[in-house]
Amino acid sequence: MGCIEYRLCEISQRYAHVIKDTLVLSITDEILKVVFLLSDHTTLRISERWVDRALVRYSYYWLNSENRLNVGWDNAPHHRRLENFPHHKHVGTQLHRMASYETSLEDVMRIIEETIQFL
To answer: What pLDDT does 30 receive?
Structure first.
């Protein structure tokens, strides 16, 4: 099993109480693209690019049950004026951008877990 496959297995097991189903879109030596259906009927769309076991690009888009944006985290190198560039998040809409300190899937899942727990 390669590193990316191992990562998917690890995440799926660690968050099995929140993840109800997984749709694998793409797995290569460097790329992981999946969609998680979560226990509250929201989805998390994940895209990661790894080089030499280092995460170099990511986007995590959490959509509500109507497929509208809750929060989207990414490190695309735009929005240079935001603190913590290139890490940022879109809250509610693509136009509402904020600096982000959640820079990994584990950080994002922690937020999602806390939110789902209180629903």
So the answer is: 92
Tokens found for residue 44: 């998390």
**Count of all residues that appear for the chain in the document:** 119
Average pLDDT over residues 11-27: 95
67 Cβ partners below 8 Å, 6+ apart?
43
| Of 87, 91, 88, 89, residue with least CA distance to 70 | 91
> What pLDDT, on the 0 to 100 scale, is given for residue 104?
96
Q: Does 119 have pLDDT greater than 80?
A: no
Angle in degrees, CA 71, 25, 14, rounded to 5: 65
Please report, for the chain, the start and end positions of each structural domain, with discontinuous segments joined by +.
Answer: 3-117
- The residues near 1 (Cβ < 8 Å, ≥ 6 apart) are 9
- Please compute the mean of the pLDDT values over residues 12-38 and round it to a whole number: 95
Q: Is 93 helix (H, G, I), strand (E, B) or coil?
A: coil
